[in-house]
TrEMBL record:
Encoding gene (name): HSD17B1
GO molecular function: estradiol 17-beta-dehydrogenase [NAD(P)+] activity
Protein name: Estradiol 17-beta-dehydrogenase 1 isoform X3
Organism of origin: Zalophus californianus (California sealion)
Region of interest called Disordered, as start-end residue ranges on this chain: 299-320
Listed GO CC annotations: cytosol
PANTHER family xrefs: 17-BETA-HYDROXYSTEROID DEHYDROGENASE TYPE 1, RETINOL DEHYDROGENASE-RELATED
Length: 320
């Protein structure tokens, strides 16, 4: 019987790096059948192989056995790069594909350059599609495979000043859910690992300058953006998870005999997600999220009377 071959995108830092190490260093290889040792390496792929230093340093520090990890160049924006990485997997197949590569984009919508918007959509949406197109046909042919995709609570609910990022992660929800409906007869399972805030390089590595050229936004929006930034800092301070914790959720999905479509790294944001579903008009969610982010500002209660007219008010400090 064949041994499990794992390939992960976006392993230069953060969740991808920690997941690659977790799988490579797992002495029991407990996510796999213990009878199938020795294992092939975990294929940790990076957009730019010049950035592989921290991965190898961390692998040494963690005591990953020699041969347990192999790096490959894979830029999800480039179909040739994805195909070349696939061709370099010596086992000739990938059993577990982790689509993890992603980019953030933060700030008022009107200040984003077309290039930044295109790039985020290309990496997060088209990049995931490209990667799936490269590996899925073989999984279907072999009638076996697991696909894990790093999702986000920003793919389940809209977040202010994250409109393009949320659009990309909402797209990933539709992509994965659609495939999950189709693929069971092929023995292929798709799971989204829905992450809340995770302490990684994500915010530093986001596309362009954080917030963009803010002088392109009106004064009221700039005040609201400052308010949002304070909220974001607080959320990261109080609720962010370490990537090590999040990798355990990937492991849970890998170990599941019948994997679910969604796994959540934290339950902290589930009430908001429920609220979205409970009131399909969206009014309750919009009001609650506005209140949560711009907390010191009075926001009308989300009641039935709000529907069609959320009546959200800008903070007094934002008025000109
Ligand atoms: N951190 C959070 O709070 C959070 C929350 C929810 C979801 N997520 C999701 O988690 C995933 C991983 O992010 P992270 O938090 O671990 O942040 P990260 O440390 O910035 O990792 C992102 C990874 O994606 C890679 N990447 C970017 N563009 C790429 C491309 N064109 N081709 C291949 N790889 C590319 C980056 O490589 P380079 O270093 O070469 O750019 C990096 O390795 C993303 O999909 C993100 O949306 C993160």
């Amino acid at each position: 019987m064949d041994r499990t071959v794992v390939l992960i995108t976006g392993c230069s830092s953060g969740i991808g790096l920690h997941l690659a190490l977790r799988l490579a260093s797992d002495p029991s290889r407990s996510f796999k059948d213990p009878h199938l040792l020795p294992e092939p390496p975990v294929y940790a792929t990076l957009r730019d192989l010049r950035a592989q230093g921290p991965l190898w340093e961390a692998a040494r520090a963690r005591g990953c056995p020699p041969g347990s990890l192999e790096t490959l160049q894979l830029d999800v924006r480039d179909a040739d790069s994805v195909a070349a990485a696939r061709a370099r997997v010596t086992e000739g197949r990938v059993d577990v594909l982790v689509c993890n590569a992603g980019r953030g984009l933060l700030g008022p919508l009107e200040v984003h350059t077309a290039g930044a918007v295109g790039s985020v959509l290309d990496v997060n949406v088209t990049g995931t599609v490209r990667t799936l197109q490269a590996f899925l046909p073989d999984m279907k042919r072999r009638r076996s495979g697991r696909i894990l995709v790093t999702g986000s609570m920003g793919g389940l609910m809209g977040l202010p000043f994250n409109a393009v990022y949320c659009a990309s992660k909402f797209a990933i929800e539709g992509l994965c859910e659609s495939l999950a409906v189709l693929l069971p007869p092929f023995g292929v399972h798709v799971s989204l690992i829905e992450c809340g805030p995770v302490r990684t390089a994500f915010l530093e590595k986001q596309e362009g300058v954080p917030g963009g050229a803010l002088d392109g936004a009106d004064a009221e929006t700039r005040v609201l953006f400052s308010c949002y930034q304070r909220h974001l800092e607080r959320i990261f301070r109080e609720a962010a998870q370490d990537p090590e914790e999040v990798t355990e959720v990937f492991l849970a999905a890998l170990r599941a005999p019948r994997p679910a479509l969604r796994y959540f790294s934290t339950e902290s944001f589930l009430p908001l997600a429920h609220l979205r579903l409970a009131d399909p008009s969206g009014c309750s969610y919009v009001a609650a999220m506005h209140r949560a982010v711009f907390a010191d500002e009075p926001v009308e209660e989300a009641t039935a009377s709000d529907r069609g007219d959320p009546g959200l008010r800008a903070p007094p400090g934002a008025r000109q």
